[in-house]
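Problem 12. The chain below contains 155 residues. Write out its predicted structure in token notation.
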Amino acid sequence: NESADIKNIVEHVTRLLDRTELFVAEHPVGVESRVEAATKLLNIQKSDVLLLGIWGMGGVGKTTIAKSIYNQIGSKFEGRSFILNIREFWETNNNLVSLQQQVLCDVYRTTTFKIRDIESGKNIFKERLAQNRVLVVLDDVNELDQVKALCGSRK
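Solution.
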């Protein structure tokens, strides 16, 4: 089908052109081997929902590793989003609808995405994001409840 082929080509070119990378120090010590190990663990060829937690003391390079993984594999996804400082946002604002909107705006490359409330946002996540291969990175999550509140559970 010619129109489907054209659509696939346009989507592929759009992903290639949208290769905005996150800043990572030029030669961070010890990051490359950790990024390689994490990327192997993710096995992005699978179509499953995958979750990778990077845990450790502050200042050891978790965000740098997450950014490097995002930069390395992000172009293999139809949409992507990197949200910094979830813990800080949670403590000061706790407006989960705006976080949900930010993820969806990033993934679908738009400036606005209307969500009525938290539960409708979770439903949109389950329905829309499940139809596409997307990469969502949530940085500085310190409680699993933050992920569940934002995205819902896998059930």
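Discussion. The chain has one domain: 2-151. Students who got a different answer should revisit the alignment rule from Section 12.3.
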